[in-house]
Amino acid sequence: MKIGIDITMLVYAGSGVANYTFNLVKTLLEIDKKNEYRLFYSSFRRPKNFYYLDQLKKLGGKIYDFPFPPSLLKIIWGKFNIIPIELFTGKVDVFFFSDFLRPPLLKGTKGLTTVHDLTWKLFPEYHTKDVIEAHQKKLEKTIEFGDTIIVDSENTKNDLLKLYPQTKPNKINVIYPGIGNEFKPNDNKQKLTDILKKYNTIATNHYSLATNHYLLYVGAIEPRKNLTLATEIFSQLIKTTNDNLPTTTLQFIIVGRAGWKNEDVFRSIKQLGLEDRVIFTGFVEDEDLPYLYRGARLTVYLSSYEGFGLPPIESLACGTPVIAGDNSSMRETIDKKFLVDVTDKNKILEKMKYLLSNKTNTNSNEIQERFDWRVSARKFLKIINDL
């Protein structure tokens, strides 16, 4: 069988959707030597250390790399729905999408798409107009063309059926994303120190950053993630006196690229006088991320809503506890003891103090077994074979 996959989302290296796309395709290529994979990629730019295409090519994927500007693809596929994507990859049996666009296909080709979440529909105030329009058009086409749909959680499936009741329930398949084998406990403090230096996370003032002396956030810097709230709670936390907490040296490392509508985050940090206590690393290479999780005292993920949410799972697998929003899919994937009502600042602060002061079992082995990319890939292949 010839399987086409749009991997253009890899241009957003460091984002959740890029992580999903790369790891699912990589695992498919590793475990499936029977089918042929044709991978369409289009972008003018390459992020720093962009190794993704080379890795997928080495695993046997056929790369179709084009320098089309995103604006052009939005016009021909998003607005006018012309020019089948297979004119660039050749005819395939199935084409899989996880991008903003759902291009037309040649006659007889079956469509398969992932809907990660519907936050753009539920919380439009968190998104820009063009993002909302792109998702809306893609989902309408997905339903109109009768594509098979993959969702990351039961929560997203329920959202989809509620907001788009015309969707056929038998067309929706739940497949949890996985995490890599590298996300596991490891007490290599020297390696962590080297990585902290690599990303300039050593403070510029008298505070000294060391293992277990920082909180960690991983993800996009955008409103839904509630980073302004997180920094406000952090400001309160470091003012408390507790023999079990290194509040005088504790810092907050934020890993991820700036998304949209993020001005309030930077404004809040400045107003709270946290410029020397909150450190932005920008994009962190995949191989370095597990060490940052392991060295953290707590991973903070106070998102208002998630279709899945990989960072909390990755952190727990590395043995580091999490404080996450008690909402959406996180109720489905994370133990209740790590969840908190993100609308109650007092509860967040108290839960944070408790998790920082008490050793809490993260059930690392269970997490690794439950969220395994090989399991995800096998379920994906079963769906393909049943089409």
UniProtKB/TrEMBL annotation:
Residues 212-361 form the Glycosyl transferase family domain. It holds the Pfam family Glyco_transf_4. It comes from the Bacteria. GO terms for molecular function: glycosyltransferase activity. Residues 15-179 form the Glycosyltransferase subfamily 4-like N-terminal domain. GO terms for biological process: lipopolysaccharide biosynthetic process. Keywords: Transferase. CDD domains: GT4_MtfB-like (cd03809). This is Glycosyltransferase family 1 protein. It comes from Candidatus Roizmanbacteria bacterium CG07_land_8_20_14_0_80_34_15.
